[in-house]
Amino acid sequence: MNQTGYRLATDLPEPMLPWRDRPTRWENVSPSTGSYRLTSAGEYLYYPDGGAIGHDHPVGQAQFGLGCIASYRTETDATRRALFLTRARAQAERLIARHVEARGAWWFPYGFDFTHAVHTGVDYQAPWYSGMAQGEVISLFVQLAELDAVSTEDRARYMAAAEGALASLLVHDEAEPWCVNVDRSGFVWIQEYPGATPGAGDYTYNGMIFAMFGLYDYVRATGSEVAADLYDACATMIARFVPLLRNQRWVSYYCQTHRIPAPTYHQHHINLFTQLHRQTGSPDFAEAVDRLVDDFPAPGVSGTVRFEAGSHVLYQFDTAASGAWSSSKGDALLESKSVNFTRGTSAPASMRRRIQGRGIYFLISAGAYAGWWVGENWSRAYLRGIFLPTVYRPERALTGPGTPVDVYDVAADGTVTSTQAVTITTATCDRRAIVNGRPHFRLSGGDEAGYWVPASAVTADAEPAVS
Is pTM, for the whole model, over 0.90? Predict the structure, then answer.
């Protein structure tokens, strides 16, 4: 079992701990219609195709419960707070009551047949089991046990349930049921979708990382070396497979088996790797975040495009009406034209995104060129301001050329308020962002703390020689 020596930072600020970023909204705390509904006991069941019969869905139950815990932690209204806790506990009690014991472990069965619509080989008859669920229920039980409102007796029950779930991640594919295997190169996989035969599976990235958060919570609560070692092995695998998860200059792949680009999961991957960086403190995962952001940045960025004087090429692409990517249209080039500005000018842009097979472009939203796209070029056409910040915790180390480089103090609207020429040999940075059209790191130490340095002028720790 390959390990690197990743150690866990268990003293993260509360907002950075697992699941705090996915609270259950108050309006969603009592669903009564749709695919997920509550029973009279407040249990969160899955109704395939909106039917009349509800089934256990351990990932859905765990995530709903964890979202309720996240809301409970921040809610100030006593009545709402009490209901969030009641909902979270109902999911835990349901999972405990329905668990199956086998191979010295607790297993949490899915109660419905399932065939994946896209991924061949993911075809189950109930009951079936998922490594994603096995890890997420650990987080649910541990996080409930941490709450002051939970009695000592219930706290012990929840931790016993977490221990039983952990045991399922410590047995491999020699017998049924299983959700963990070690591949022929010695890398550990927690399978969201275990295959029908030993070692087979979908090798899904996000499901494994969510399961790792259960290991993190368990280590944080108990100090377990066994769970810490398994997390290390899982992190080792994830770091090794980043080049295969990436789909360079486009959206990342959902799983290793099918390698199908997954537009709806790419931002999840960015968020998950951000959390891995925080949990391990390793720049390996911060670097993965940077690469994924550059491959396909979040498209919800708008602002003002600055055009420098001179000639520019504008494009029309075949997209959805909003400018978003459409699988049936594929960003095909429809038309292009050149325009010339005798002086610098600007135009509003409703979207900044990667065009399939091309670079980063802006969609002009008003004026003479509304509906046209222009390619990002930091010296000629760029979005003014600071966008898509990635906050590093811990800070990252930078290595400079040892000769003067320009660093910038930049206001939120992109105005450069100060420029200095600084000789950087080594430095630290606390974030990365797109600043006036190109990636920058924000220096975090010395007299230049708060200044931005172009990423092309320095090398960040763990940064590969070739992107």
Answer: yes
CB 26, CB 80: distance < 8 Å: yes
The rounded distance, in Å, linking the Cα atoms of 350 and 360 is 14
Residues 95-139: tens digit of each pLDDT:
999 999 999 999 999 999 999 989 999 999 999 999 999 999 999
CA proximity to 376, closest of 334, 438, 325: 438
pLDDT one-digit tens code per residue, 383-429: 999 999 999 999 999 999 999 999 999 999 999 999 999 999 999 99
What pLDDT, on the 0 to 100 scale, is given for residue 291? 97
> What is the bridge-based pairing of β-strands 452-454 and 100-102?
unpaired
